[in-house]
Amino acid sequence: MDFKKIKITEIHPFVRCGVFADHLVHTDYVSPLEHRVFYIEQGGADFWVKDKHYKLQKNDVFYVSVGTPYKMEAFKESAIFVLYFDMTMKNSNFKERIKPRGIVHNSDFLCQFKLIDKNGEVDYLYLNSPVTVKWINRIKLQSIEDISNEYVISKLSGLVTILLSEMLDNQNMTIKRKSFVYVAEFITDYIHKNYSKKIVLEDFEELLNFHKNYLNRCFKKYTGVSIYKYLLNYRLEKATYFLMYTGMSVNEVAEKVGFENSKSFSTAFKKAYLITPSSLLGIKYKK
Q1: Is 78 within 8 Å of 23 (Cβ atoms)?
Q2: Which residues pair with 49 in a beta bridge?
Q3: Pairing between strand 113-117 and 4-7?
Q4: Which CB contacts under 8 angstroms, 24+ apart, belong to 243-247?
Q5: Edge-to-edge strand order for the sheet containing 14-21?
Q6: SS3 assignment, position 70
Q7: Dihedrals φ, ψ of 201, to 5°?
Q8: How many CB atoms lie within 10 A of CB 158?
Q9: pLDDT tens, 187-204?
Q10: What long-range pairs does 118-123 form, CB within 8 A, spacing at least 24?
Q11: Strand 79-86, strand 70-74: pairing
Q12: What is the largest CA-CA distance in the chain?
């Protein structure tokens, strides 16, 4: 089924119900007909969503979108709070809890809307945070009241929006952190393998499909230095070894570590180490 797309700024959740369970088991994948949040109040659970497996522990909060296949098995003596809700008030007259169905492609999903952000459809969110637990506990307090009360319905809608916003923000920050770590590790690995060749920032633009300024910011955040500075330091570090332990000439070393000529190499070497490259030639033989 093609769900309608909705942004976090456009949602107006309707909370159908919230229930407590001491033991939840779905040994086969099921499809939720609406959106669900699982809060591990005590104990834990094995949780599979799509092709990924999570071991949920106390205070973990897990959101699963409508139509996203999942299965789970709670540990013994666990206490789990499950929230059932839609992204809009379209079905606010229907307040019953509906059990999930097996994986079928033509299900009559109660909620036709799926949350999206800049990374695409949001199938699930996972977070363990004091802030998230605070909001889920407020939702728990409200959801045990009269769900037909307009004030309670409105308040729950706002609380669920805040909860999802917190979880979405955390996921995006995690993706961003992983992104700059990946960028930095890719560039360092490339430099280590290709330092003897000509390397310019435009090379990384083409390889990673990001602007060179963004790549430099990511790299500096991870390493503390710019890409150029890291490349220079690595070349000089390798040059030191070649000068001391290989018997190569200054000219040969300069070419070996990627400098255009021995003059630029000697200038950079002396600026970094306050000595000339030639002073290190064959030093292992002098000991």
Answers
A1: yes
A2: 52, 70
A3: parallel
A4: 243/277, 243/280, 243/281, 243/283, 244/280, 244/281, 244/282, 244/283, 244/284, 245/284, 247/282
A5: 14-21, 79-86, 35-42, 61-64, 124-127
A6: strand
A7: -60, -30
A8: 13
A9: 999 999 999 999 999 999
A10: 118/172, 119/172, 119/175, 121/3, 121/5, 121/65, 122/65, 122/168, 122/171, 123/49, 123/50, 123/64, 123/65, 123/68
A11: unpaired
A12: 90
- DSSP character string of 116-152: EETTEE--EEEE--HHHHHHHHHHHHHHTS-TT-HHH
In angstroms, the CA 242 to CA 262 distance is 14
Residue 32 burial (CB count, 10 A): 22
Would the CA dihedral through 220, 224, 230, 234 be positive or negative?
Answer: negative
pLDDT tens per residue, range 224-250: 999 999 999 999 999 999 999 888 999
178: helix, strand or coil: helix
Q: Kindly report whether the global pTM for this prediction surpasses the value 0.85.
A: no
Residue 147: what pLDDT? Answer: 66
Q: How far apart are the first and last CA of the chain?
A: 76
- Three-state SS at 245: helix
φ, ψ of residue 242 in degrees (nearest 5): -65, -40
Q: What does the alpha-carbon distance between residue 141 and residue 247 come to, in Å, rounded to a whole number?
A: 76
CB atoms within 10 A of CB 103: 12
Closest CA to 14 of 211, 148, 179, 138: 148
Q: Which tokens is 119 given? A: 């990374």
Query: What are the residues whose beta carbons fall under 8 Å from the beta carbon of 88, sequence distance 6 or more?
Result: 6, 11, 12, 13, 14, 111, 113
